[in-house]
Write a structure and sequence with these properties.
single chain; about 130 residues; alpha/beta; Transcription Regulator spoIIAA; 5-stranded mixed sheet; 7 strands; about 45% helix
């Protein structure tokens, strides 16, 4: 695992963790979990996992995404995933019906727009 396997960035109030490899397996699962837990512990409430470069996730990595989603919701956080629609990963999420449970977007722009809408609709007007 290399330092640039995951890329962290912030866009306004949104934390983006980009998975910078094509195959996500058990080897990367613990790193993903710890990064998301660290984001939550550091007060990040709006998290995007960008899997747009990833073509394959094994069951341990998908399980980690589900656990991260549950932890985010338990902490009243917002969590979404970016998956390229033509990737085999999109087929996996559809076949397992995870696309019905997780907030999945086709592009970073769609995910950012979603967060922009929910952040500003839920903030009280001053």
């Amino acid at each position: 695992m290399y330092d640039n396997d995951f890329i962290y960035e912030e866009v306004g109030d949104i934390c983006i963790e980009t998975v910078n490899f094509t195959r996500a397996t058990l080897k990367e699962t613990e790193t993903l979990r710890s990064r998301i837990q660290n984001d939550i512990n550091n007060g990040k409430t709006n998290i995007i996992i960008d899997l747009s470069l990833c073509d394959f996730c094994d069951s341990s990595f998908i399980g980690a995404l589900v656990v991260c989603t549950k932890k985010s919701f338990a902490n009243n956080n917002k969590f979404s995933i970016i998956i390229q629609p033509e990737s085999s990963l999109s087929d996996i999420f559809h076949a397992t019906r995870l696309d019905k449970v997780l907030s999945i977007f086709k592009t970073r722009d769609e995910a950012l727009k979603y967060f922009d809408e929910i952040i500003y609709k839920t903030k009280p007007i001053e």
